[in-house]
Amino acid sequence: MRPAQRENFRRLLTPRHIAFVGGRDAAIAIREARRRGFAGRMWAVNPKRDVLEGVACVPTIADLPEAPDAVYLAIPAAAVTGALGQLSAMGVGGVVCFSAGFKETGDAAAERALIAAAGDMALIGPNCYGLINYVGNSALWSFEHGGWSPGYGAAIITQSGMFSSDITMSQRSLPMAYMVSAGNQAVLGLEDFLDAFASDPVVRAIGLHIEGLQDVARFERTALRALERGVPVVALKSGSSRIGAALTISHTGSLSGANELYEALFARCGVISVSNPSQFLETLKLLCVTGAPRGARVAGFTCSGGGATMLADHAERIGLSFPAVEGAHRTELKALLPEIATVSNPLDYTTPIWGQGEHTYPVFSRTLEAVTPDFTVLVQDYPAAGLDESKVFYLNDAGAFARAATEQQVPAAILATIPENMDAETRQMLIEQGVAPMQGIHEALNAIRDAAGWSAARARILSAKPAPLLPPLVPANLVGQTEDIGKDWLRGAGCAVPEGRSVTAREVESAAAEIGFPVALKMMSPRLAHKTEAGAVALNVADQSELRAALAQMPGAVAAYDPDALTDRFLVEAMSPPPLAELILTLRRDPQFGHALVLGSGGVLVELLGDAVTLLLPCSVADVQRGLEGLRLAPLLGGYRGRPAADLARIADDIYALTRAYLQDCAEIAEVEINPLFVYPDRVVAIDVLLHRVAGQ
Predict the structure, then answer these.
(1) Are strands 500-504 and 569-574 parallel, antiparallel or unpaired?
(2) Which of 4, 15, 262, 447 could form a Cys-Cys staple with 283, CB 3.0–4.6 A?
(3) Which residue ranges does the record assign to the CoA-binding domain (predicted)?
(4) Is 559 exposed, middle or buried (0-12, 13-18, 19+ CB in 10 A)?
């Protein structure tokens, strides 16, 4: 935001007075402002009414007694630009524009006029539900809304009006600070809200529902600032973008589409990515109530063997650990437990002491002392209303657990196995005690894992902040190059390739003799992007006899595949020894994200395995090494079953050097796909490459 916009956004967020311009929709917004508890002055503008929901109307904007801090605008689209011009001229702070009929309907010109008319006003929308300030009790909102705040909470920005409304109605007791339905983001965008809320002291976490980003590089900068300020950001990405037509020929068009690029962006700047609305709300809740734990060591308590097993099972799948109780601590804890209980973590403390705080408190406290966890959880599914004579016993254990966690300074959550098995009264009581009321075992453990991961990512990223993303290049037509040309570029970039010769059919035999058998024979043609399918490659050719046979058979196979692909150019190469593993490596441009590196399991099963990681460029050597370590084939690189181990640091360095060479030439080289890239203990070798140049370069 510009300085004037930032000040006007402050006025919009905490208004002294609000003007409601419109009819029925403005009347709803007046009711919602009152529902939120807004205590400032309210005016209404409507030429056909004297009163709107008890608020006296003036006929025109010019008749307002003074410039409002905030305006709710719900009038026909054709009148919006003129109204905004009037509001800006009179010094209004900000506007929520509920009116629709702009860019979302294809009328980009009308939206450009709207932007110009807004001037320095902080404008949300158009085509949006609005803004709710839960801490300051103001609302410019288009429908009934719920939600609550204990004086702090999450700031949530959504690109879906209905989803924002659904969140306010959720039965999760998520502490809320602000809600923004961003709409078309004509003036203020998601990045503006992210930057503003990250510096607000009442905001403990920020939630983003993202359908698409307008400025990826700016998002990166603002997300990194939030990370610096210690404010976790949780993103729920929905929808997908079309991969550019020029990239569809490559294998990795299916591996690194828009969703993978978004995930790479989130990982790059420490944003927690979740896959569903429930996980979105539960993760925000945990971060707001307890903050992010330092690590992934958990102490778990249940009064059910089944609950303990469910905790342990899911934790193992997602990388949380339950440290064992060992040594003298086992003896001490056993003395506190009933005879039927087994000392373990997670701990089923069993029913003989259930609901008796004087007995469960020492168990909780001593266990926390023994395992020194980063987080602790107690599983409790509360009885339903009307069946809750036993609720007092649940509350006794909850109080004992909260006391022990507070004294040991361990972040804590009480979680219900089944999400609806925790009533609103209990949820808010737990929040008052600093305990997160989590709904769903998997959602709770996932949130702990992701929050702990955020802590680790923050420390790592801030110790070596990524270089800024490069701006996307103008889309261009691409021209595929033959493998021999691609390998010439790789050699120049310092990447090893097999010894080979590019020759005519007449020269094939002499080239093979110079190189030495066994060899690979490949026909070179820009139309042979995938030579195996075309019959344009022969591998492990052992001698001249086999070479002549392959040379005689290949033209017929290629002609049957694509007559226009037939050429008299061949690449003869030495066969490479079997590697530790085969990778696919792609360097490519993207019209939104700039440039990316894709690493994955390579060879003929690349699409079937779908084992890939995407990194946005520029990246670091450490980023590449973490990417390699995250692949499912990583055990093959680590000395699997007695085989030699790859020097991952050296391999990562080689790959990093290739990314640097690509970025130097990216104005001319649009895409480089190496498949397979053979990995040996101390080096990599590019066995096949598909390179695309920008047309005319």
Answers:
(1) antiparallel
(2) 447
(3) 12-102
(4) middle
Pairing verdict, β 233-237 and 272-274: parallel
**Mean pLDDT of the 523-539 span:** 94
**Could you please report the per-residue DSSP string of 558-585?**
HHHH-GGG--SEEEEEEPPPPPSEEEEE
**Cα distances (Å, whole numbers) of residue 85 to 102, 368, 658:** 16, 62, 53
pLDDT of residue 255: 47
Neighbours of 137 (CB within 10 A): 16
| pLDDT, tens digit, 9 for 90 and up, residues 328-364 | 999 999 999 999 999 999 999 999 999 999 999 999 9
Could you read off the pLDDT of 644-686 as tens digits, one per residue? 999 999 999 999 999 999 999 999 999 999 999 999 999 999 9
Angle at 597 between CA 594 and CA 602, to 5 degrees: 145
Q: Which residues contact 478 (CB under 8 A, 6 or more apart)?
A: 246, 670, 671, 692, 693, 694, 695
The domains of the chain, with CATH numbers, are 3-247 (3.40.50.720), 292-463 (3.40.50.261), 499-574 (3.30.1490.20), 581-694 (3.30.470.20)
Cβ neighbours around 517 below 10 Å, total: 15
Structure tokens at 604: 């003929």
Residue 95, classed as helix, strand or coil, is strand
Q: How far is 202 from 181, CA to CA, in rounded Å?
A: 19
